[in-house]
Amino acid sequence: MNHHYSNRLAWPASLGAALLIFLGLLLTPLQGMAAGILQLSHTEVRLEPGVAAAELYAENKGDTPLFLDVEQKLLLNPGRSPERLVPIQQVDQPTLLVTPDRLVLAPGQKYRMTLKTLAIPTSHRVWRVTFRPRQRVLVESGGEHADSAPLIMSVGYGVLIYQLAPAI
User: Fold this and answer.
1) β-pairing, 110-112 with 57-60?
2) Which of 9, 43, 46, 156 is the most exposed place for a label (fewest CB within 10 A)?
3) Is 15 helix (H, G, I), strand (E, B) or coil?
């Protein structure tokens, strides 16, 4: 008996096909494809008491509507890994509110997010705001009985907001 062992991983055919389709979607140029493309005006914003805050804009640079979920979380351990994030709904006394939490942008539309200071913090706070486009891609098999299945991708675009306490 001749046994041949390989160091390669054995992938189930369906998983391998799904991976190839996903990689193909990532590597396909966007020319000719309809897509919403998110652009944020800042990746970091500093909020200091008594200083005018920078404005945060979300813009759709694509050619189709862009549906966004916006999540705001308090970062408890800045600079450490893994991050400890608390959703704003679970923060006892939030000092900042970013709205809206859902947003639809038409092609070419630019929207100014509201950054509302609810209270001046006694110590510095760091907030992570994540914009998640809702993407739905339909994948079809090339067989005689073409089946299709939705492929949902979740890519988040983050903004850090540094809410500073007053200088002593």
Assistant:
1) antiparallel
2) 9
3) helix
